[in-house]
Amino acid sequence: MTWLRKAKKGLKPQQRRRELPDGLWTKCEDCGEILYHKELERNLWTCSKCSYHFRISARAYIGILVDEDTFVERFAEVISTDPLKFKDSKRYSDRLKRAREETGLSEAVVCGEGRIEGNPCVLAIMDFAYLGGSLASAAGERIARSILLAIETRRPLIILSSSGGARMFEGILSLMQMAKTNALLARLSDAGVPYISIMTHPTTGGVTASFASVGDVILAEPKALIGFAGPRVIKQTINQELPEGFQRAEFLLQKGMIDRIVHRTELKKTVAWLLRFFEAASSTIPHGPRRRAGESLERFRAASLPIGTALPPPPSAPEGDGIAPPAANGSAPVDAPRDAASPSTTPAEREVPIQE
Ligand SMILES: [Zn+2]
Predict the structure, then answer these.
(1) With 267 labelled, which of 68, 141, 261, 340 sits at a CA distance of 20 to 30 A?
(2) What is the pLDDT of residues 202-213, one digit of tens each?
(3) CA–centroid distance, residue 34 to ligand 1 (Å)
(4) How far is Cα of residue 19 from the mean position of the Cα atoms in its chain?
């Protein structure tokens, strides 16, 4: 029996381990780090090691961006039909039914009104999980109505894009949404109402080629794929090697297509800062017909309130809230990946409950 005693002696006392039932951890899709869901949730679904941004739902973005209990959904009654009775390997009507069941959404964009750090705004948030966040007639109509609502209420518009492009199951009807939304955005700009576009991973095709690219301010999440056609198609067409990091947010920031890259944990603060900036500057903005997309920002600049300078804190905001003013186009530094282990990077604001 000595062998048994020996074996027993050699056994280590059972260490107290955190009980982690299956499904409580996720592997980072970029660096492979094992991340616990609670930590991932605290970091708003971004990797604490490499800052990879996991794709999240429109509802999750609303939870992150909008003040609690202030979001009121609008235009949910606008839903897709199947005007062309389209069928490839499956019927389009079946695809719609399945997307609705899987996501709990009725279209690829959730629109509504809400407040961000107390600032009222109109929001349209796309959801990639619903048929690749594709732009179809109903999605386009919801965005169009949101733009009209922003004009009517004179509240800034925020569109968060996450899309594979136009939904080809609706053929030309989906492509028409590009022109429709942009025509209304021109009216929004004429009315002097600001529009902030947020591009997340991925923002491609007809969405990049229309409303996502004409914001007065264009923000993007780190490493987001942003482009019109895919790199393979471009490479074959121009018959040239593409530069490294082509079509990624960092590359596009250098080229001046976007204004700032914002880590998801800083997104709400940055948008709130912009809303306060536009609110403070609105009294000085000269009105008149707009000549090109994004001209409102130029007018704000012309009104001697360049966006690169710090604004006096508005009456409702506490002083020194630590928000760095977004820099002028092209000169903004790329937000460095944040180390979630550092306590200074986990402010209470980050611990926004995510409703999924
Ligand atoms: Zn990672």
Answers:
(1) 141
(2) 999 999 999 999
(3) 8
(4) 34
